[in-house]
């Protein structure tokens, strides 16, 4: 039962992530006075893409082919340790802030080098841009989480969640500043638009769904 519950939670989060991404797209369209797609459009796109043949650049190596499995595996592992329903981590063995940050770093590393592994200058530009965004934006995430860890006096996710849940009034200023850092980080990560001369938007949509999971 101790292993089954974290796995069920991770699968539920994976199933709900496209819905949250669809809600975000609808809200963004409404803010721009557009109708936009429905909230279930992400599910339609996933079903359509799963029915297509898997293709890749001829010059790509094993890193490009391995990256999707690494990304799914890392995100699934992170989802099993996050305290979503309960205050405590469902998987205490992974419920440490430093461990989760390293897992996020592994996912970002493979995501960046997979673009370099294709041999295309366009994907190399995208990989460089993704790495640069990580350098500029992710420190805000680290700062917000580290402030919460300092207030809790521990890097254990369960202790951090318990501290934020009860919200000690004497620590409202640092916790509020940390929450503001997280909000600014998510604003930039979910609201950014790829700078490109044209082409398909499939890559942008796929990365947006991934950001919702994170």
Describe this structure in words.
- The chain is globular and about 55 Å long.
- The protein has 214 residues and is mainly α.
- 71% of the residues lie in helices and 0% in strands.
- 19% of the residues are buried.
- The protein folds into two domains: 1-47; 58-194.
- Residues 193-208 have low confidence and may be disordered.
- It is found in: Membrane.
- It is a multi-pass membrane protein.
- GO terms for molecular function: lyase activity.
- It comes from Escherichia coli.
- Its main location: membrane.
Tally of individual domains: 2
CA distance, first residue to last residue: 25 Å
Form type: globular
Strand residue percentage = under 5%
User: Could you tell me the mean pLDDT?
Assistant: 80
Q: Whole-number radius of gyration? A: 19 Å
Q: How many beta-strand segments?
A: 0
Could you say which structural class the secondary elements and strand pairing correspond to? mainly alpha
Biggest sheet overview:
none
Task: Supply the number of helical segments.
Answer: 8
Which stretches are poorly predicted, pLDDT < 50 over at least 5 residues? 193-208
What share of residues is helical? over 70%
Helices and strands, in order, run as HHHHHHHH
Task: Characterize this entry briefly.
With 214 residues, the chain is mainly α.
Which key terms come to mind for this protein?
214 residues, mainly alpha, 2 domains, NADH_UbQ_OxRdtase_su1_CS, lyase activity, lyase
């Amino acid at each position: 039962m101790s292993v089954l519950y974290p796995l069920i939670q991770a699968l539920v989060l994976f199933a709900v992530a496209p819905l949250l991404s669809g809600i975000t797209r609808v809200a963004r369209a409404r803010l721009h006075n557009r109708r936009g797609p429905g909230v279930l459009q992400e599910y339609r796109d996933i079903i359509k893409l799963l029915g297509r043949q898997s293709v890749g650049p001829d010059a790509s190596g094993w890193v490009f082919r391995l990256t999707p499995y690494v990304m799914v595996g890392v995100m699934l592992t992170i989802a099993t340790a996050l305290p979503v329903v309960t205050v405590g981590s469902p998987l205490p063995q992974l419920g440490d802030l430093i461990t989760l940050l390293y897992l996020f770093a592994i996912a970002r590393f493979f995501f960046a080098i997979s673009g370099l592994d294709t041999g295309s200058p366009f994907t190399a530009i995208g990989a460089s841009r993704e790495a640069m965004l990580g350098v500029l934006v992710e420190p805000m995430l680290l700062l917000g989480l580290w402030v919460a860890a300092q207030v809790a006096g521990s890097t254990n996710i369960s202790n951090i969640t318990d501290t934020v849940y009860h919200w000690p009034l004497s620590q409202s200023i640092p916790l509020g500043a940390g929450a503001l850092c997280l909000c600014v980080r998510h604003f930039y990560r979910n609201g950014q638009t790829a700078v490109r001369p044209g082409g398909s938007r499939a890559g942008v949509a796929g990365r947006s769904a991934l950001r919702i999971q994170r």
